[in-house]
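fold-stage: in
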Amino acid sequence: MSKVKRILSVIMAMVMVLAMSVPTFAATTPTANDTAKGTVQNVEKAATVTAYQITKAQYDGGFIGYVKTDNKLAIADVLAPTSDEVTAIAKQIASGAVTLKSKTMTGAAVADDVKYTDFTADLNAGYWLVIVSGTVDEVYNPMLVGVYYSANGSDNTMTSNPVNADSNWTLETSNAYAKSTTPSIKKEIVGGETAKGNDVAIGDTVNFKITTAIPSYSKQYDTVTVAISDTMSAGLTLDKNSIKINGADISADMIEKVETTDHGFTLTVKSDYAKENGGMELVVTYSATVNDQATVNFDPNTNKATLSYTTNPKGDVKTTDSKTYTYTFSIGAALSAATQGYTEKVNQIIKVDEKGNVISKVEEKSQEPDEKVVEVLKGATFTLTNTKTRKVYTAESGEDGGLTFNGLDQGTYTLVETAAPEGFTIDKTEHTVVIAATYNEDGTLNTYTITIDGKNTSTYTATYDKEGKVTTIATTTTVTEIKNTKLSALPSTGGIGTTIFTIGGCAIMIVAAGLFFATRRKTQK
């Protein structure tokens, strides 16, 4: 008997499980309140996803079919809207020509490092047109989510077959998988130390290249924005006549508007051209000259390219950008801008007197009673010549005895004094100066080194934060001294031999004069 009870218990459990698997709406009459969970997969979690109902179910003692939700909607077959019809409806929604029942779909929670998620909403029977908007990076095409009644024995497709309490029905959904494209833009330096970072001298020309592609837009998009802009810092001057697209001059068939300034430009692609040429690569090339407003050392002369593009039929516009860094070096200037807190100078070369005393503008009190304060030595003129380009830079020692050369490229230079301060002789020694630099992957300057005469080396290394700003600069510095000798310290002209000869000559003249006068006296006697 107990065995029979156990068997009956198992059978009852199976019946309960099977009962739980019976569709929720079985043995009930379909109504306008019926809903099912509609899902759109693979959407950026920061997006706003909205579903608009374009067809709905009709009821009369049960489900009897589908109709349009608004007579303004052009749908020939409510069971199968075409892509052209969906395109037209998306435009109507974007323009406000129709006001449809809508629901905001909710994104599933995901980890911080996960970009995409699924969005869901409880939707009534019918077709829902889903539009993705908000803060997104990608271009999304409108999608359809279908919610439909499926009776026992029917296939999983939307039909208008009547469904009632005797139909053993369920409410099914045809979910959507979001298809999107991610527009991008890449900015490069042509012929630089790296594609993202380089160094040049003031007056040099830098060649740039922007690579991007026109986003692919479906027919749902009426008017789209696609624009390429470039913004340079004050130290770069645009050559307005150098702009080319895919190796040719700017075409009026492609570009609707061209705007240029001394430090940048904007190229706006025609809307119709963009829609007809989705996926087309655009390569923009141009050049700029480094001017005397260029910042030096760890302060870069930046160049940012930006792509602006429409992300949805509503007309929302998103931007993405890419930046390059152009540097020029200075000897004797601040390591970085005062606004970033770095005012230490790169004083690699200083003037000293013949005793090797460093000359300083600030007169500090002597700690020793017999210690002398050395006067400022300024006014020495030097030339710094690039051994490759032969470009010559000139500097004069300042109040602190230091030299400042601005706008230098990395490379090898020859330093020579051409004029000494008043009262001093020229030091004719030629000094070899080498500037070398390394770059981070993003193009920012990592380190640069100044070596003088192969032994005195100063190295500067920067640390950056996430925003690309310099946080610290580590320095290892040595000083190169160039001595001048006072004229009063030089030996007398002619040397000791001339002095002895002169003294001897005078003595002979004195003896001769004495003999002359003595002989004259004898004659008179």
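fold-stage: in (second)
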Amino acid sequence: NGFSGVKVVWNQHPDRNDEWAREERSRVGEERFRREHLCEFIIYDETLIDPLKLVVLKGEDPLLRTGEVRWYRRPKKGRIYLAGLDPSLGTGGDYAAIEVYDGTTMQQVAEWQHNKSPVKRQLKILQDILKYIEQETEYVEGPHSITEIYWSVENNTLGEAALSVIEYTGEENFPGQMISQPKAMSSSRRFRKGFTTTAKTKLSVCSMLKNMVESDKIDIKSKRLIRELKNFVANGLKFEAKLGETDDLISATLLVLRLSDHLAKYDERIHERMAQGAEDDDGGFAEPLPL
């Protein structure tokens, strides 16, 4: 169409020098300076993750695929694998998503996302993922296994249907151990397997995700997940996807972080990883409090 772009940054202006740049950075902040004077495409919205960090998150192509599942690392013996399913109705609207991480390094291992799979198939995909990890690591359930597999589902609304499928299939037919949110001592509600997400728990685990991403304590490989993070913004007192975007991979990742946080109380390797992130956080991190 005849358009020709021209890039002009601050130091090409004859009246601007390093002293001007220091004063301008101090006045407007690093993020705005890089956006306005270095012509960098830094997100302006109030994202959960610092926009300067989002700029350097690139992601990579999957190492292999098994059906619709994208694998970024092959499962290895002696690791702790954490898998979380965020279910959906499966009618073409919201996506169901599964995320798998190595609990000892918090490196992303695999993911799956689909919006036309019924709940029964969503659980079958999760089962297949767990069986693949079992096969690759020669996992044998028991106290002497050198590989550990833990998994869970979000039990809000549609999660009830997922729990019914798990009960029908048989929890014992899913490799590894299903982890559930402990019942509060003061709660009068009946115990439900899986994890319940409330506004309070979501904000808390969002804070955990923010800390881990910005301090490089979680290794995200998926380009799709990074795209979701770039469009995960504050809306009142919560964080959610922008209009027209999705946040299902984020929801599955948040579930994995809740799994990790729960298991850190019992597993030394996970505890050390989580504690390291908390120690590095002492340098001034503030929980995100959107207005």
